[in-house]
Amino acid sequence: MPDNLEEQRLEPHSHAFLQAILETAVDAIVTINTSGIIQSLNPAAVRMFGYQTEEVIGCNVVILMPNPWRDQHDAYLQRYLKTGEPRIIGTGRQVLGRRKDGSTFPIDLAVSEVSDQTERYFIGIMRDMTQQRFMEQALVTAIENERREIGRDLHDALGQIITGISLLSKSLAKKLTSGDPSLAEQADTIAAMCVDAMGETKRLAYGAFPTELERLGLKTALMQLLDNIRKIHHIETHFYCDRHWHPMPQATELHLYRIAQESVANAVKHGRPDNIWLRIEQQDYSALLEVRDDGAGIQHPLEAGRISMGLHIMRHRASLIGGEFEIRPGNNGGTEVICCIRSPILISNLK
User: Fold this and answer.
1) 138-156: per-residue pLDDT in tens?
2) Which residue in 140, 347, 328 sits closest to 249, CA to CA?
């Protein structure tokens, strides 16, 4: 303990007081000028990125970013300085950071602008989201595993029982034909109902966990999803996909499938459309999922929050794979749902 506590007291708003806040902050704080050159970083940023202070002071801040953000950052910054149109300034978003050793990790980034009498500066406050993402993904994985087991139980156990009932009913109908025709007809009806129940069981099992996704990948699973919608709800569906579509990590494909599944279900339930369009495409550092319909639509994006709690889950799923999620009124009516991933890790070709 210091002998004189008064000597340790710092005046609020003094340089030493503000410096103490920066030095002890849990979050990483990096300051850059209008050219994107790093002016300062606090100890938390040093620990987060693995650089010593003298290694990055005077360097462009892109040293802390992987592609595609590395290539795009300077253009974003100059666009803001010219137009004053904020894309990141004053808001938070989740991106990837790049450590000195080249490894990448998810961060929550908030950027604000300050200025003195001579120059403008931008302050980035960052929080490492690795542990939170890990826990969230573990929870989602546990839920999906449970859904997989439910789907298998529906298909295997219950499906076998219904199939058995159907076979017995058909056998009974044959035996009753020579006796009471009305009883034979009832047995045939039971058999037909069993066939319908088996079809519904398969549909529920597929909804619990899409086996096509696990066996054949996202593209085939989405085509099967639309095929079911067309058969069950008599809605015209349209599917568009890159000719050279590359598989993505299984977790990424599963989240994209669930987002598409919820979007299509919302369109059917709330929009009552005649058509649903689903599109997936890939570029060098991005992947896009788009679901459109020509139904009743929403008048304003804020209305989306009243449609379904599923939308909050979709946004969360998008964030888990580094994606940006948007729902908006369509240009020609209906609703558009878009999920865009910009990360070389999450769209990497597994072949």
Assistant:
1) 777 777 766 666 666 666 6
2) 347
Q: What is the pLDDT of residue 206?
A: 60
- Low-confidence spans in the chain with pLDDT less than 50: 1-7, 301-306, 349-351
- Can you name the CATH fold of 5-128? Beta-Lactamase (3.30.450)
Give the start-to-end residue ranges of the domains of the chain. 5-128, 130-209, 213-351
Tell me: the pLDDT tens digits for 223-262?
988 988 888 888 999 999 987 788 888 888 888 998 998 8
What is the topology classification, in CATH, of domain 213-351?
A: Heat Shock Protein 90 (3.30.565)
Strand order in the sheet with 335-341: 236-241, 275-282, 287-293, 335-341, 323-329
Q: Residue 114 contacts by C-beta under 8 Å, 6 or more apart in sequence?
A: 120, 121, 122, 123
> Do the domains 213-351 and 5-128 match in fold?
no
- pLDDT value for 42: 92
In the prediction, which pLDDT does 349 show? 46
pLDDT value at residue 223: 92
